[in-house]
Every structure is written in C-alpha cells, then in structure tokens.
Design a protein that fits this description.
556 residues; alpha/beta; Rossmann fold; 2 domains; 7% strand; elongated
Length: 556
C-alpha cells in the first residue's frame, strides 16, 4: 500500500533546493514563512504522494528550506558537493553546527556524482556545479531563493542551477532538445546582502510550458493513489529476477522492482476495465439498433421506451468510463512499467544511466511524468553491488525473446479467429439481405394477388392477425446482424491484433540479434545492454503513440 506524505513506497515528489548563502537577516522570517507555506500547500494538493527534499544544506537558503521541510515531515536527502568534513570548511562556526545537526536528521547523505567531465584542474566550484546539476536533474520542481541575476556559462551558483533545471545547459546534458513541458522552478525573489536597491519578496512559478508542473504532479499523485488501492487480485506481476538474487540487492533496486510490479498490475487492471467497457458498448450498439427496428415494425411504445432507457444507460456508462480514464491509465501505466523494467536491468549491472534520458522528443512531451518518476526513483548513492551480466541476459534477453515469441503466436491466432468471425458475419449479412430482398418482392400486392393469392407465402407475409410477420422478422434480423458486423469490426480493429503480431515479430528479431551478439563474446556486454535499452524505449514510445492515437471511440 502507498503511504501518504512520509511513506516509503510509491513515486516520491522531489523538491530540489537552490539559493543564496548571504540572505539578509531582515528577510529570513518572511522567507521561512513563504517556503513553509508553499511546501504545505503542495503536500495538501497531492496527498497520496511522499515528499522528498533534495538539498545540499549549504548556509543560508538551503538551511532555511531544510528546516522547513523537516518541520513538515518531509524526508531530507543531501547530495554534497564535497566530503562532509571538507565541505564543512566552507561554513562559519555557527553555520557549521547547524550543518552537523541537519546532516544527522537527513535520511540519506552522499557525494554528488560528476555529471560533466573532470577538468585538468579541479576546483571547489566544479564540485558545487555538479551538486547543482544533480539536484536539477532529479527534482520534479526546483525551489530557488534567487535574486534573478542571469547564469554564467561555467558558473556554479544559484542562477546556474535554475538554468540547469529550465534548459539543461550543461556538458553531457543528454541531448540538445529538452522537452517544452519539462522543467519548473518555484522562484522566491530573494535579495542578497549585497543588493543595493529595494526589492519586494514574492513567489512565482517559472515553467517552460504553463500548466506542465501541475499535470506532472497530478499524474504522479494519481498513480500513487491507484497503487494504494491494491489490485493484486488481477494477476501476478512479472518478476525481473529470481527472489533469492533480488533479496541480495540494494534498496533502490528493490524499490524499482516493487514499483515495476505495481505499474504492471495497474496496467493490466485498467486494460481489463477498458476491454470490458468496449464489449458492453458494442452490445449496447446492437441492442439500440434492434429496439429501434422492433419499434418501427411493431409500432409498440414498449420498445420505444426500451430504446430511450438504453440511450440513457449508454450515456451514463460512457460518462463513467471517460471519467475513469481506463484507456489513458492502461497506456500510461504500461509505459511506466516497461520503462522501470529497462531501468531495473541497467541499474542491476551497476550502470548509472538514467533511461529517461533516452526518451525521444515525442516521449518527453507525452510522458514527462514517467521520465521524472525514473529520476526520482534513482535518488541516492550508487550501489557497488551488481548482478552478473549472464544472470541479467537470462532474465532480460532470453525472457523477452520467449515472451514475444509466445505473444506473436497468441495474437496471430486471435487475428485469424477475428478475421474468420468477421468474414462469416459479413456472409450472413449478405445472405439475409438477399432473403429479405426476395421477401420484399413476395410481399408486393400485385405479385401476391396474381401469383401467391391465398397461398401459404402470402398468408405468412400478410396474415391480418400476425403482430410480427416473417418479413418484419427478417428485417429486424438483418439490421441486428449488420449492426453486429459493424461493431465487431470496430472492436477487433481497436484491438489491432495484426499490428501487434507484426510488432512482436520485430522485437523477436531485436532480441535474437542481442542474444547472438551476447553469446559471441565479441561485444562489450554492458554497452549491448545500453543499446538494447534504448531500442526498447523507442519501441515502447512508438507503441504508446499508436495506441493513444487509436483510442476506443464511444458514440451514440
């Protein structure tokens, strides 16, 4: 179950912090109140999520934000630019004591890794810059107590961290194209001791795309809420490594595995709901046609009332399904589970790669919350414990190869069955049409009067005491079969078994090639995994885009 605000499962919402050391004393209380109020409002707005603050706890703004977070019960994680004893040299004595206190209260403390290449001559500023990059890269939103001065190309301060967050402007920034809806900064305009002019302190949100932060946090919180509702009864989730192997891994890897299983179960749950809804709506469509035809032929108000009642039920059901977002959640959670699966295997080998950086431009736009979820789940010091590449090859490459082979057979079989059913329904419709056409000629008064007068066919078609003649029955049956044919074609078309079979065939080729290269021993196996991960992410993105553009359509 997902615990709220302070739990240790689910996807955490990460608040990064940057700010000036030299705050003015007269501003401190107001700044503290603004930070506290903003954090409290975010926690209230997204109650199903654990909040984490990413903070290097430097003097001034960092310390102020850390104290506010701890007061609210927010977990404090501290990526330090330098080893703690060395870092401590940059503090005055009173600030050093506060630093020691906060360090003890932090949930995790580690040395921020170098994202950029080591310079020939390392400086303290270089390491401060790396800590800023780490905070920006792993936060959903950056809280910046900043005076607004522009960033410098090689700087290491508050302005540069803001720039990292909004534009990703740093060496090895993982691509030139940062998604327009990625990056948000809660800017608290903060004067410094050196500020000469009068400055009014206020809070505003900096976003590359208005509304993007709220959407990202909403999706994260919705997932955490859905995760907290359970769903273990659907099916067993996939297992990425044998239990005995997994039990000896670090906590981050275990959490990735748990979140993968939760996302997998949720995806299956909403897929079943959406497929069930499609079946019911197809049945509603057929019944609507039948009730209308029966009313038309019999002129019975009973069938008219049934028709109206069914329309009301249909509208209500469509409204509930759309509010439930079954199709959207099925796709989003499937994309999340597949991304976490790939990230799990990369981390299991000891690689620090964030697979979210391999997202295409389209994926960054469509699934920003997933990319940021991965970054949030990778918080912390890299584990030195790794799993053998052979074990990962067996569960990843061999496992996925077997899965796609079986899935191709299954979807190909379903496609053939659906094609056969649609074919016979079409034939039935054509035969019924011909039969009704003949009966229409038989029911013609001229023909029946001269040829069939008093005969059995004429009596069957025109008997005055019959409420439902053979002619009427055949018309109703033709309408029902035709409607069923159309709705079945639409339903099976949405399932896209043929396309799925083709996609499985492509992935079989990919994993077969990966297996062959791995077993040849001629390639760097970790690099092979890295390339395989990238291909999987691209394929998942293509699948997501196709399915999103081909949603179930429910019309009256």
């Amino acid at each position: 179950m997902t615990e709220t605000n302070g739990g240790n499962t689910g996807i955490p919402i990460v608040i990064g912090v940057t700010g000036h050391r030299d705050l003015r004393k007269q501003d401190t209380q107001l700044l503290r109140e603004l930070v506290f109020d903003k954090l409290k409002k975010l926690m209230a707005q997204y109650p199903n999520s654990e909040f984490v603050m990413l903070n290097s706890i430097a003097s001034g703004a960092d310390t102020l934000c850390a104290e506010a977070a701890l007061e609210l019960g927010i977990k404090l994680i501290c990526p330090l630019p330098l080893p703690s004893q060395e870092y401590r040299k940059d503090f005055s004595e009173p600030d050093a004591a506060t630093f020691d206190t906060l360090l003890k209260k932090a949930s995790e403390v580690f040395l921020a890794p170098n994202t950029e290449s080591l310079p020939d001559r390392q400086t303290r500023d270089f390491h401060y810059r790396q800590a800023g990059i780490y905070v920006a890269a792993h936060s959903h939103v950056l809280m910046a107590l900043w005076d607004g001065t522009p960033a410098k190309p090689d700087g290491s301060g508050t302005a540069e961290t803001v720039d990292f967050m909004l534009r990703g402007n740093y060496e090895n920034g993982h691509g030139c194209f940062k998604a327009a809806n990625d990056g948000a900064v809660i800017h608290i305009l903060t004067p410094r001791q050196s500020t000469k002019t009068e400055v009014s302190i206020f809070v505003h949100l900096l976003e590359n795309e208005p509304g993007s932060l709220s959407e990202t946090l909403r999706m994260t919180d919705v997932f955490n809420a859905d995760a907290g509702k359970g769903g273990d009864s659907i099916v067993d989730a996939g297992v990425l490594l044998p239990e005995e192997t997994l039990s000896n891994t670090d906590e981050t890897l275990k959490k990735l595995h748990v979140l993968y299983q939760i996302a997998d179960r949720l995806s299956l749950r909403f897929q079943q709901k959406y497929l069930r809804a499609m079946k019911w709506f197809s049945a509603f469509g057929v019944l609507l046609v039948l009730f209308f035809l029966l009313y038309d032929e019999l002129e019975s108000n009973l069938f008219l009332l049934c028709y109206g009642a069914l329309i009301i039920i249909y509208v209500l059901a469509v409204t509930l399904v759309r509010r439930g977002k079954y199709h959207e959640k099925y796709l989003q959670y499937r994309m999340l589970s597949e991304t976490l699966r790939v990230q799990f295997y990369l981390k299991a080998t000891g690689m620090r790669d964030n697979i979210g950086n391999a997202f295409t431009w389209t994926q960054k736009q469509e699934s920003t919350w997933i990319k940021q979820a991965v970054s949030a789940l990778l918080l912390g010091e890299s584990s030195k414990h790794t799993i053998s590449v052979d074990a990962i090859k067996e569960t990843w490459i061999d496992g996925q190869l077997t899965y796609h082979q079986n899935a191709r057979k299954r979807d190909s079989r379903k496609h053939r069955m659906n094609e056969c059913m649609a074919k016979w329904m079409l034939i039935a419709s054509m035969l019924l049409f011909l039969l009704v056409l003949v009966l229409e000629f038989l029911s013609n008064s001229t023909m029946t009067g001269s040829i069939f007068s008093g005969s059995f066919p004429a009596l069957l078609l025109h008997h005055p005491e019959q409420e439902l003649t053979l002619r009427s029955l055949m018309k109703v049956l033709l309408g029902g079969v035709s409607a069923t044919t159309v709705f079945l074609a639409n339903y099976y078309g949405k399932l896209s078994f043929e396309r799925k079979s083709i996609d499985h065939e492509k992935m079989i080729g990919l994993y077969s090639s990966a297996k062959e290269q791995f077993e040849s021993g001629k390639v760097d196996k970790k690099q092979l995994f890295r390339e395989l991960a990238r291909e999987e992410i691209i394929e998942n993105g293509n699948w997501f885009s196709y399915c999103r553009e081909n949603p179930p359509s429910f019309h009256i």
